[in-house]
Write a structure and sequence with these properties.
The chain has no helices and 11 strands. By secondary structure, it is mainly beta. The chain is globular, with a radius of gyration of 13 Å. The chain starts with a strand and ends with a strand.
């Protein structure tokens, strides 16, 4: 069982930055690939970024490449999403998720993730 708690969301102007954190419980955190997803009002939850258990092979959806960076600290059982050059279209609830995956290729599909946090709101004003 893995429990996930996101933090770091808030209101920011376009062009600004935020760093999201996701703290995980459980002693096998390092066995899980971790991902960030987001859901805007009236839209489906979509993939944002993911990282393998070892911290390698980060992958991003095209719309955030070059602006967002996913990272993890297995010693702290925490992952991060650094978001720069934020745009109003980035406004959404952001969720972190965990997938038991000992491989080096993190998944990009919602169905691949077994555990989810409660979400943190990110609002970007124009």
């Amino acid at each position: 069982q893995v429990q996930l708690v996101e933090s770091g969301g808030g209101l920011v102007q376009a062009g600004g930055s935020l760093r999201l954190s996701c703290a995980a419980s459980g002693r096998t955190f390092s066995s899980y690939a971790m991902g960030w997803f987001r859901q805007a009002p009236g839209k489906e939850r979509e993939f944002v970024a993911a990282i393998s258990w070892s911290g390698t092979n980060p992958t991003y959806t095209d719309s955030v490449k070059g602006r967002f960076t996913i990272s993890r600290d297995n010693a702290k059982n925490t992952i991060y999403l650094q978001m720069n050059s934020l745009k109003p279209k980035d406004t959404a609830v952001y969720y972190c998720a965990a997938d038991y995956n000992p491989n080096d290729t993190p998944g990009r599909g919602r169905w691949e993730y077994d555990y989810w946090g409660q979400g943190t709101q990110v609002t970007v004003s124009s």
